[in-house]
Amino acid sequence: MSQEEENPLRISLQPACAAGLCAWLLWAASSAPGQAPAPKGPEVAEATAFTVPFRMVELATDAGGVVQKVHCEEGDAVKEGQLLVELRSDLLKAERAVTLSRLESARVQVTASEATFTQRKMDLDRVAALFEKKIMSHEDHDKARLEMELARLGVDNAKAQLKMIEVAVQRDDEAIRRTQVRAPHDATVVRIYKREGEAVQERTPVASICCVDPLYVIANLPIATSGRIAPGTQGRLTLENMPGQTLSCNVAVVDNVVDPASGMYRVKFTLPNPGGRIAAGAKGALSVPLSR
């Protein structure tokens, strides 16, 4: 009988001992002193998000009337102050022309009254010199003084008339401005509600514009992440219509009110959008790191 046949227990224990030794060596390596555990990455919150316009405005006139001209079309990029829609203002412009004529006349009147005052003052100086020499009478001196005072009052009155007409010009300009719709900021025209010849009531929208650079990104996050997202934190956005592209956006607003029905709160991000290449209303996946 061989030695192996005489000791069957020894043969069966060899594989078990080898497996135990390997397990012990792995445990010893992982528990070796001075070896730090692998670092954990930052916690990340993930949510579905939507892009929305940074600003959307419906534009209206301050006055009612009839549309004379629409200076833009839907989809046009417009600049701040650009004229978009104009109502008929022929009568207002005619009134302004009359007021400008009155303004020019008032300026001439001021010049003439100042010249008269200068002449009357010179006359008074001559009369006063003669009065001191006993050549002119009290009556002549008093008359010269009165004429100078009247001339001075004429200057004051002419200047007051000029100021009043200048205000009237401003009034006419404001009346014309109320018939015009201008872009309050750089934007894109979304809708035009009124066309040439259509009547417009006071403060009725005639067009709408939106600003898409930057865009807002809106996401709803669970209450468990509340207090762990601060303004300025950078998030990552992947839109369904732009697969393979990761966009960076920054936290702008964190709502402090949680919806009790869903247990979610809103976080608003800003997303740069030069050239408007990213569409407002796009849906995507958002991830944002959480603070500890």
| Helix/sheet category | alpha+beta
Report the CATH C-level class of the domain at 89-178.
Mainly Alpha
Low-pLDDT runs of 5+ residues are 1-13
Over the alpha carbons, how many angstroms does the gyration radius reach? Answer: 42 Å
Largest sheet: 6 strands, antiparallel, barrel
CATH topology of the domain at 89-178: Helix Hairpins
**Helical residue percent band:** 25-40%
Question: CATH superfamily of the domain at 89-178, please?
Answer: Helix hairpin bin
Number of strands: 12
Q: Strand-and-helix sequence, N→C?
A: HHEEEEHHEEEEEEEE
**Percent of residues in β-strands:** 25-35%
* Total of DSSP H or I helical runs spanning 4+ residues: 4
Characterise this structure.
This protein is of the alpha+beta class and 292 residues long. Among the domains are: 45-55 and 212-289, Efflux pump adaptor protein, beta barrel domain (Elongation Factor Tu (Ef-tu), domain 3), CATH 2.40.30; 89-178, Helix Hairpins, CATH 1.10.287.470. Helix content is 38%, strand content 30%. The chain is built from 4 helices and 12 strands. It has helices at 3-6, 8-30, 90-132, 138-177, and strands at 44-60, 65-70, 77-78, 83-87, 180-182, 187-192, 199-200, 205-222, 234-239, 247-254, 264-271, 283-289. The chain has a 6-stranded antiparallel β-barrel. It has a 4-stranded antiparallel beta sheet with strand order 5-4-2-7, with no helix packed on it. β9 (234-239) and β10 form a beta hairpin. α3 (90-132) packs antiparallel against α4 (138-177). The longest helix is centred in the middle third of the chain and has 43 residues, at 90-132. The chain is elongated, with a radius of gyration of 42 Å. The two termini are 70 Å apart. The model is unreliable at 1-13 (pLDDT under 50).
